[in-house]
Design goal:
The protein is α/β, with parallel strands linked by helices. It has a domain of 173 residues: Lambda Exonuclease, Chain A, CATH 3.90.320. Helices cover 38% and strands 20% of the residues. Strands 1, 2, 3, 4, 5, 6 and 7 form a seven-stranded mixed sheet that branches. The chain starts with 6 loop residues before the first helix and ends in a 13-residue tail after the last strand.
C-alpha cells in the first residue's frame, strides 16, 4: 500500500503517530466530539424471500399450444423467464431501451444475407460483384433499418461493419460455389411436435446438393465463452430435436416441412472480425 504524502510530515512533527491516532483504548476524539457507542448487532435470520409478483389464480396458467426452440430453452433453463415472457407476456417496452450495437449489426447482417442469397445466378458471381452489391444494398437498407450507423461520428463503425460484412458474404458465397451447394430457401418456417406440443422454428438458410440438404444457422461473431455456453445449454434442446425428428444420428436431425419428414445436416456460419487468414465459416 502506498504511503500517504503527508505521513512523513506527521511523523516528523509528532514523533509517533500513536499520540494522534484514535482507537478504542485511546479516546482522543472523545475529548472534542460526541462519538457514537459501538454495539454488537445480534444475529438474525433473513428468512425466505417473498415474491414481488403474486398470482391470485395460478390454476389458470395452462400449457401453451405452441412453442419454439427459443421458448423451450427458456422453459428448461429459466422457467420464471418463460412464465413472464411467453405465458404472461410481461415484457418491457422497446422504447425503454436502446438496441445494442452488436444486436443491430447482427440483424442487419441477417437481412443482407437473406437478400443476397436469394439472387438468381449468385453461384457465378465474383468477389467484386458481391462487394458492389453490398455497397448498393447498404445505401437502401441502412436508411430503412440501420439509421444509427448513418449518424454523425459513426462513419468509422459503419465502414468497419461493411468491411466485415463483405468478407463474410464472400466467404459464404465462395464456400457454396466450391462445394456445389444450391440455396433452396432463406428464413424457412419449420414445424413439428413434441409431447403433444406444437413446435415451430425458422431455418436461416437451407442448402441442397443432389440428395443432401443442409440447414445453416447464421450468427454474428459469437465469443468463445458464448459458444461454449450455448453448446452446454443446447444439449437438452438438441434431445428434443431428436425426438421431434423421430430419428437422430451424429451430425443430423430431421425437420418437418410441407407434410413430410426429411433428414438434414446442421451447421452454423459465424461472422467474425476481418482477418485475411481467418476462415469465415464454422460447422457444428
Amino acid at each position: 500500500m502506498m504511503r500517504h504524502p503527508l505521513l512523513g510530515d506527521l511523523e516528523a512533527c509528532f514523533g509517533s503517530l500513536e499520540h494522534i491516532t484514535a482507537t478504542d483504548e485511546n479516546q482522543l476524539l472523545g475529548r472534542y466530539l460526541d462519538l457514537p457507542e459501538k454495539v454488537l448487532i445480534p444475529f438474525r435470520r433473513l428468512g425466505k424471500p417473498a415474491p414481488f409478483l403474486r398470482l391470485n389464480h395460478p390454476e389458470k396458467l395452462t400449457g401453451r399450444a405452441e412453442e419454439t426452440f427459443t421458448s423451450l430453452e427458456s422453459l428448461l433453463y429459466y422457467p420464471y423467464q418463460w412464465l413472464f415472457r411467453y405465458h404472461i407476456r410481461l415484457r418491457k417496452s422497446s422504447i425503454l431501451s436502446i438496441v445494442k450495437d452488436s444486436t443491430l449489426q447482427g440483424n442487419l447482417a441477417h437481412r443482407f444475407f437473406q437478400n443476397l442469397l436469394l439472387i438468381p445466378g449468385l453461384s457465378n458471381w465474383s468477389k467484386a460483384e458481391v462487394d458492389q452489391w453490398i455497397e448498393r444494398e447498404a445505401e437502401r437498407l441502412l436508411h430503412r433499418e440501420g439509421a444509427v450507423l448513418l449518424m454523425y461520428g459513426k462513419e468509422a463503425e459503419r465502414k468497419r461493419f461493411l468491411k466485415r460484412l463483405k468478407f463474410a458474404a464472400w466467404s459464404l458465397v465462395n464456400l457454396l460455389q466450391n462445394n456445389q451447394w444450391r440455396v433452396e430457401a432463406t428464413e424457412l418456417g419449420l414445424e413439428g411436435s413434441f409431447g403433444g406440443v406444437q413446435l415451430n422454428a425458422r431455418a436461416d438458410l437451407v442448402l441442397s446438393r443432389e440428395a443432401e440438404q443442409t440447414v445453416l444457422d447464421l450468427k454474428w461473431r459469437w465469443s468463445a465463452a458464448r459458444i461454449d455456453d450455448q453448446k452446454r445449454r443446447r444439449f437438452a434442446v438438441s434431445l428434443v430435436r431428436a425426438f421431434v425428428a423421430t430419428e437422430y444420428r451424429k451430425g443430423t436431425y430431421g425437420l418437418f416441412h410441407h407434410g413430410k419428414w426429411s433428414t438434414h445436416r446442421k451447421g452454423s456460419f459465424c461472422v467474425y472480425r476481418y482477418h485475411p487468414n481467418q476462415p469465415g465459416c464454422q460447422s457444428n
